[in-house]
Every structure is written in C-alpha cells, then in structure tokens.
Design goal:
- Helix content is 25%, strand content 22%.
- The chain has 236 residues and is of the alpha/beta class.
- The protein has an 8-stranded mixed sheet with strand order 1-2-4-3-5-6-7-8.
- A hairpin with a 2-residue loop joins β1 and β2.
- α4 packs across α5.
Length: 236
C-alpha cells in the first residue's frame, strides 16, 4: 500500500506552487472573517471552501501567516486542491470567535452566514459551483451550512466525519440535504470518533433522501486515493 502511494506523493510534491493571498470580508454586522485564497494555474473547475476540524481556528495574521491548524488534512493540502483546478478558500474562525468554533456554533445561523459570505465572494470571482469540504468537526460545519443556507453550497465533501457526541453530524437533519455528498473515511483511522462504523446513523438518514451520495472507505484500494490529495496515511 505504501509503495502504491509513492507515485501520488511524488506528483503532489512536484506540482507547481502558486501564490496564496489573505482575504478579509465582512460577514455579519461588526464581524469579519479571514481566509486564504488560492487560484488554480489554469481555468477553474469549481470553487472549494475548506473547513478545518477541532476548533476551526487558524489564527490567520494580517500577512496571511497560519498561527494554528497547519497540520490539518485540508489545510496542509490546500495547494494540491488548487493545482487540481479548484479556486480554494481556507476559512478561519470569524472575528467574534477568537477561541474557535466552540459549543454548537458550527450549527448556528451565524456560522452559516459567515460561510455563505465566503461563497458569495468566490462566486463573484468565478461563477462556478461552490463545494464545502470539511474534515472531522469541519464536516459538521459543511453540513450545517448547507442546511441553514442552501444557497451557499452546491455539494459537500465530508472527510473523517464524526457521528457521535456534541458538535457531530448526529443531530443534524441530514435527510433534508438535496445536493451531492461525498463521504470519505479511512478504514484504519485511529480516532475513535471518526471510524467508518460510526456513520450508520448518517447513512440511514440518506437512504431515503433524494441526493447523490457515495462513501469511500480508504485503506485497501490505492487507486481511490488518487482523487484525494494528501490522504496518504491512516492518521491523515
């Protein structure tokens, strides 16, 4: 398996680096949100908003330096997504949440308004679909935003989803989603909260939902990894 991944890793490391820049926009009265914007080297295929897990806090400085979250799967692979043709926005926590997206904030209308503002900004630059990509607790943000603000998302990419406890997918009315959803879990994920077996309730919600959905369980077929930049190990 590791040997199969070497060609993919080499390709990602060989991809050209393109400049990223900091953008700060107003999202709600008195509130702003910072994000890193990466443009693809050629014509864009879609807009992509990356939502980190944990507290969702990147501590982006005025110069665009990351003060936290560098090791997060989506954050550390942001350049790979841009090189694949996506316009990428890596979202920080909003200015009124300096300690991160704590409690139930990820499920709130306020958080949805923040991410919807980022989606609007991206669409102004390129009239293309907007996909929300979350990892770990970032999947709660992605799904909740799509439920609270259907105009903000044309599709969801959910990686290492958490489906139990506070701040997880468990309490969301996922059956209401009417957009494409791709869930990706690793068979050997070492985090007990994001193992593939946890996703039964979420998948149950979607059995009767009129959406296009798929579940990829990585860890056996190396070929499936080629579509997911940076997903190179069980602990990614």
């Amino acid at each position: 398996m590791r040997y199969r991944l070497l060609p993919l890793l080499c390709c990602l490391l060989a991809l050209p680096a393109w400049a990223e820049r900091l953008v700060e926009i107003p999202t709600r009265p008195g509130v702003t949100l910072r994000f890193l914007l990466l443009e693809p080297p050629g014509p864009a295929r879609a807009n992509l908003i990356l939502l980190a897990g944990g507290e969702g806090l990147l501590k982006l400085s005025a110069s665009g330096e990351l003060g936290a979250g560098k090791g997060n799967f989506l954050v550390r692979t942001r350049q790979g997504w841009a090189d694949m043709g996506f316009r990428v926005a890596v979202a920080d926590a909003s200015s009124d949440m300096p300690r991160g997206l704590l409690g139930d904030f990820r499920e709130s209308p306020a958080h949805a308004a923040d991410i919807a503002a980022v989606a609007d900004y991206l669409r102004q630059g390129a009239a293309l679909p907007v996909w929300l990509a979350g990892t770990s607790r970032g999947t709660t943000s992605a799904a909740a935003v799509a439920l609270n603000r259907p105009d903000a998302a044309d599709g969801l990419l959910l990686t290492s989803s958490i489906d139990s406890g506070r701040g997880s997918l468990a309490g969301l009315p996922l059956e209401r989603l009417a957009i494409p959803v791709l869930m990706i879990q690793h068979r050997r994920d070492e985090c007990r909260a994001s193992r593939p077996g946890n996703l039964g309730p979420a998948r149950g919600c979607w059995r009767t939902a009129a959406i296009e959905r798929a579940l990829w369980r990585l860890g056996r077929a190396g070929a499936t990894l080629a579509a997911i930049p940076g997903f190179l190990s069980p602990t990614s």
